Amino acid sequence: MATIRGEQGTVQFDAAGTTNATIVGTRSWSLTITKETLDTSVHGDTFRSFVGSMVSGSGTVELVYDPDATGQAGFIEDVVTVNDPADATFELFTTGTTTDTDSVSFAGIITDMEITSTVGELVIVSCSFITSGTITSNLE
Amino acid sequence: MTANLNTIRATIESRLATELASSPAIPVVFNNVSYAPTPNSSWVQCLLSFGANEYLSQGLTTDSQNRIVGVIVINIFTPAGVGSGANYTIGKRIRDLYNRVIVSGVYFDAPIGPEVVGTPAPEGYFQTQVRVTFEFIEEL
Fold it and tell me: How many domains, chain A?
């Protein structure tokens, strides 16, 4: 057994969906995957029954803002992509940076970007995203 | 690039040494330097110490950042029994030197003081103290 600490994680991203690259300055990420359910109960049942249905995900990535940090600008500015075809690709690593290892990957859309500047504190950027299409989980 | 704490120290101390070497020059003594003050003279003692380090971003030993913080304690000694004006004049020079300044990647916060020290050490002087916290972002 090996537990993992957050500093082992990484976020990789490519706005064009070609080659993911590490976003330097990532402070944290989170991902929630949700599976909808369909009620398959029938008349006469006394207990409800369900089947799993559509799967989708959403999450956030928080950055310590540095305009010169590799990968930050492309990530932050993807929120202003109009008519977004959801061609951006993400890979969220719990540890390391080996593709398809200890990670979750998907295409997605950045839906929200918030940048916060406060006296005496580091400038922080928080982006929210939703997944689009297949979510590939390699968290085993 | 990992932080060289000695370079940070030199950045901070040389700033003070240069200022106090200008007219009117005031002797300044730093950590681990012996000094025998001249009675009824003014002089300054600068004590620099690094404190806590903390994770700033993900990525372990590459593409990651740490926050290094520290404090500069500057003791200002002026002749006893002749009022506080000379002491505060030196205090203003020192305060202006660091107040919200960014030098070589070192962020200086708003200074604390000059605060009067009730029991001067060494005795025989009027002593005040200026403290300045600072931080440096280490990029690995």
Answer: 1
